[in-house]
């Protein structure tokens, strides 16, 4: 039987709200599990992972470890295979890797009644951007534009678009902005963009789903006037619910017992943190 110890790893990690979310979930489920946090950088991941014993049940991982977690997994779910990123590891004889960010984005968009995304723009080209691309493709996007500081480093998104069956274009932040239904910002918290770049993106950007949540409003959200604005807290909550499903049932789609109550407890803990 797997152990009852869990942690979130990343660098930086002190800001993570995952311990608050998971503690609320396991309390609501009546499980005596322990969820902490640890600062682990990319260079230290392999050693820290190898040192885990059978008292450990699983890990949540955040930047910059999602690719390392992907490599450490013996099996990977469909969303992890698409994105090349794992944010959840279920431990055992063969570690299983999952990407719950994709489902978390989809659930957050649905919760906020954002269902029009035929034409989507994604700002950024990291692991979260890949998850956003998969999520919006599954949500009905037909064309996705990726805006990156270094467009030449984002060409892999074109190949991912082909696998998903949608058209993907890659451009810089200063390219002319065409109208889209939805903008998904995956830029690091605190990222500042020049006003001359943001203004046209906002005017033609439709609804804004910003993966950032601390501080909030983000620099981008504070000046967005193209449509509805949603913070990354919704994604954080819903990806965590899917992580709890993995740690309890081994399946991000296996609904928890009394999940509506568990979700409410997690949301209350998140808002009160």
UniProtKB/TrEMBL annotation:
Gene Ontology MF terms in the entry: NADP binding; shikimate 3-dehydrogenase (NADP+) activity
Keyword Cytoplasm: no
Any one of the GO CC terms: cytosol
Pathway: Metabolic intermediate biosynthesis; chorismate biosynthesis; chorismate from D-erythrose 4-phosphate and phosphoenolpyruvate: step 4/7
Shikimate dehydrogenase substrate binding N-terminal domain mapped to chain residues: 8-89
One GO process term, biological-process aspect: aromatic amino acid family biosynthetic process
PANTHER family recorded: BIFUNCTIONAL 3-DEHYDROQUINATE DEHYDRATASE_SHIKIMATE DEHYDROGENASE, CHLOROPLASTIC (PTHR21089:SF1), SHIKIMATE DEHYDROGENASE (PTHR21089)
Species annotation: Microbacterium aerolatum
Record has Acetylation as a keyword: no
Keywords: Amino-acid biosynthesis, Aromatic amino acid biosynthesis
Segments crossing the lipid bilayer: none
Protein name: Shikimate 5-dehydrogenase
